[in-house]
Design brief:
The protein is of the alpha+beta class and 542 residues long. The protein contains 18 helices and 14 strands. The strands form 5 sheets. Strands 1-2-10-7-3 form a 5-stranded mixed sheet. A hairpin with a 2-residue loop joins strand 5 and strand 6. Belongs to the cytochrome P450 family.
Length: 542
């Protein structure tokens, strides 16, 4: 017995020694188990909250018609396509539901899609204090554009809007018209060369995107990039960022930041952001130092005693550096960088899309093209130069009608989204609950047959003043509307008129001989490019 006791004692001592040896490993194992349990509980809680929220929104949005879904859980996930067929599906939805419908992207996002002026008006005119830019469609831009006017909310947005509005005053925009003329001249010189070399068929998007980038770089930074003839790291980075944002939006798993930043696409996005931010930050810092040493530039060209005195004209960066709020505070370098990056992002692609589709529509309708050309030639008759002035833009009524009809038929931006911190009531007593994502379909509104008879027909006479006077104020919203409308819309319309007018004066455009399939991305493009055939014209001075 004593022997047994001795053996047992020895075994016990051995087990205790082994336990002391294994204790750290055992503690680590327990810690891992507890961590996994906590993560599992948090995920379970997240799923429960998600399903509860989905059920609540589903119940509260019953006042809106709901298109057929795959099932209750998945909803309409995967049905919103950025293709020609996707736009045709929107056409069918508008014909079926007339004004609005609910839309569910799985249990993740609850939307109300609206496509009638009476329904979008209360949303777009809602006070900015209760209007929020949602993270589903705009959040992917934040690492690139920062807390800019496009993405900010509340009092921060109001302050930025007040500070930026003077930069888009008519007196400032007048100076930019010269830049629009110059950038158009460069593009047209290149087109003449290509036509002479036998390459008359060209993709409008590739040329016009570079031209609008060239204009914006001059207007924003007073920077001559020569980007219409040769590329640069900065230009390549802007194109890269636009492409990556589109790709991310279409991949639901990349909506989670932690997963996206570990992906190859996320790494490319960071690298492109660094290139753009480095360029903008350097320009802002250099310009601030220049203003301190040399004083303010002029906001116009001074004419005294009949002689024009050339002075450096203030560009967008100058205006932001000089802007002050009611308390005398200006924007920081980081805030200016965010606004300049936003101006570059929002100004080149949308305007390029608008110009490209105007030229496409006029290539399809030679009678309208000829009438626009005659209007431009009459305006420039007996001029020493072909340059258009700011005052000339109001003397192109039919050309402007053609531009507006193209913006209706081929809106550069297909939709804008909003969230609201309060419930919003729309016609019929329907209530959009707080927190729902409201997708205001610009495309759907512009193609709604209740508002626009024969909506797929290009007819500039829709915008004749007599035909427009009884139309709803929100039937035509290419630049959105209300307090959060596009701050740069007058800039865009001025560039559209200058480029379209000079292009029609110098070239005849005809179809490129390929089927055009629309491609709605960040802006409306065409699959494989928008190809037109160019014919050089002798201007009356020639």
């Amino acid at each position: 017995m004593a022997v047994i006791d001795a053996v047992l004692d020895r075994l016990l001592d051995g087990l205790l020694s082994l336990g002391r040896l294994l204790s750290p490993l055992y503690s680590l194992f327990v810690l891992l188990q507890l961590s996994a349990l906590v993560v599992l509980l948090l995920l379970s809680l997240r799923v429960v909250c998600l399903l509860w929220s989905h059920a609540q929104f589903t119940r509260r949005l019953q006042c809106f018609s709901k298109p057929p879904t795959q099932n209750w859980l998945m909803g309409h996930l995967g049905e919103m396509r950025s293709t020609e067929e996707g736009l045709q599906a929107v056409d069918q939805m508008v014909r079926t539901y007339s004004h609005s419908c609910s839309w569910f992207l799985g249990p993740f996002y609850s939307l109300v899609r609206l496509f009638h002026p009476d329904y979008i008006k209360p949303l777009l005119l809602a006070p900015a204090s209760i209007t929020v830019k949602d993270e589903l469609f705009y959040g992917f831009l934040r690492p690139w554009l920062g807390q800019s006017l496009l993405l900010s909310n509340g009092e921060d947005w109001s302050r930025r809007r007040r500070l930026l509005t003077p930069a888009f005053h008519f007196d400032i925009l007048k100076n930019y018209v010269k830049i629009f003329n110059h950038s158009s001249d460069i593009m047209h010189f290149k087109w003449r060369r290509l036509v002479a070399e036998g390459e008359s068929r060209q993709d409008m998007f590739s040329h016009i995107s570079l031209m609008t980038l060239d204009s914006l770089l001059r207007c924003t930074f007073s920077y001559n990039s020569n980007c219409q003839e040769s590329s640069s790291e900065y230009i390549a980075a802007i194109f890269e960022l636009s492409t990556l944002v589109i790709e991310r939006r279409g991949r639901i798993l990349h909506h989670w930041d932690w997963l996206y930043w570990m992906s190859p696409e996320g790494q490319r996005f960071k690298q492109a952001c660094n290139v753009v931010h480095r360029f903008t930050r350097t320009v802002v810092q250099e310009r601030r130092a220049q203003l301190l040493h040399q004083g303010e530039p002029e906001s116009h060209t001074d004419t005294t005693g009949g002689e024009e005195k050339r002075k450096r004209v203030a560009d967008f960066i100058d205006l932001l550096l000089l802007s002050k709020d009611e308390e005398g505070h200006g924007l920081t370098d980081e805030e200016i960088k965010a606004e300049a990056d936003t101006f570059m992002f929002g100004g080149h692609d949308t305007t390029a899309s608008g110009i490209s589709w105007v030229l496409y529509n006029l290539s399809q309708h030679q009678d309208y093209q000829d009438r626009c050309r005659a209007e431009v030639n009459d305006l420039l008759q007996d001029r020493e130069t072909e340059d258009l002035d700011w005052e000339d833009l109001s003397s192109l009524p039919f050309t402007t009608m053609c531009i507006k009809e193209s913006l209706r038929l081929h809106s550069p931006v297909s939709a804008v989204t909003r969230q609201y911190t309060k419930d919003i009531t729309v016609p019929g007593g329907r209530v959009i609950p707080q927190g729902s994502i409201c997708l205001v379909s610009i495309y759907g509104t512009h193609h709604n047959p209740e508002i626009w008879p024969d909506p797929d027909v290009y007819n500039p006479m829709r915008f004749d003043p007599e035909n427009s006077k009884d139309r709803s104020s929100h039937a035509f919203i290419p630049f959105s509307s209300g307090p959060r409308n596009c701050i740069g819309q007058k800039f865009a319309m001025a560039e559209l008129r200058v480029v379209v007018a000079l292009t029609l004066r110098r070239f005849r455009l005809t179809p490129g001989g390929v089927e055009v399939r629309r491609l709605p991305q960040l802006v409306l493009r065409a699959e494989g490019g928008l190809w037109l055939t160019l014919e050089t014209l002798d201007t009356p001075q020639d």
